[in-house]
Design brief:
single chain, 186 residues, alpha/beta, 5-stranded parallel sheet, 5 strands
Length: 186
């Protein structure tokens, strides 16, 4: 194992784990890898991240940033959300997972406890997409500068624009690239 060999944890994260996830992400976006490939890679990253967690806690390794994520109120489907979570964690992000059936109030409380942290919302059902719209509107009224990204099977760019969200990404790696660029600005 790389840790046993004395390889620096930042090198393990950057040149091993994140580089590997970037490769699978690129392959997925080109149609050369599929959801099961993402899930296997993300699961491996999650397990490897557990080994690095003590180094994050001590500050020896820094998170790239944090991200709040949840499936909106009325929707208990979380497979897509969990794939995003695993991909983000594997790429060095601290993910604040609110779970499924998340109310607007719970999203707002998470933002209050984690200022300036971008938010991700998921919906699998067309009937719960309106709850996404309600949550985006309420959050933007209180925190107009918070970035909100949405996803899920029935969601698309047009809906994203209609509800005033800041982005829709069909793959986790487009979201990660966007978050990386946001973090570079700060």
């Amino acid at each position: 194992m790389a840790l046993d060999m004395g390889i620096d944890v930042n090198e393990i994260l950057t040149y091993g784990m994140i580089a590997g996830m970037n490769i699978i992400g690129e392959r997925f976006s080109k149609g050369k890898a599929y959801i099961p490939d993402l899930m296997i890679s993300s699961k491996a990253m999650t397990e490897a991240s557990k080994l690095l967690k003590p180094f994050f806690i001590t500050g020896q390794v820094k998170y790239k940033g944090s991200f709040i994520i949840g499936t909106v109120k009325g929707d208990h489907h979380d497979i897509g959300k969990n794939i995003i979570k695993m991909a983000l964690e594997g790429n060095g992000y601290n993910v604040i997972d609110l779970g499924s059936n998340v109310s607007t109030e719970k999203f707002i409380a998470a933002i209050e406890n984690n200022p300036n942290t971008p938010v991700g919302m998921s919906a699998l059902l067309t009937t719960t997409m309106q709850n996404m719209a309600i949550s985006v509107k309420a959050i933007k009224e209180i925190y107009p500068n918070i970035k909100i990204f949405i996803g899920g099977a029935p969601v698309n760019s047009k809906f994203c624009d209609e509800i005033g969200a800041d982005g829709y990404f069909p793959s986790p790696y487009e979201l990660i690239n966007t978050l990386d660029k946001l973090n570079e600005q700060y």
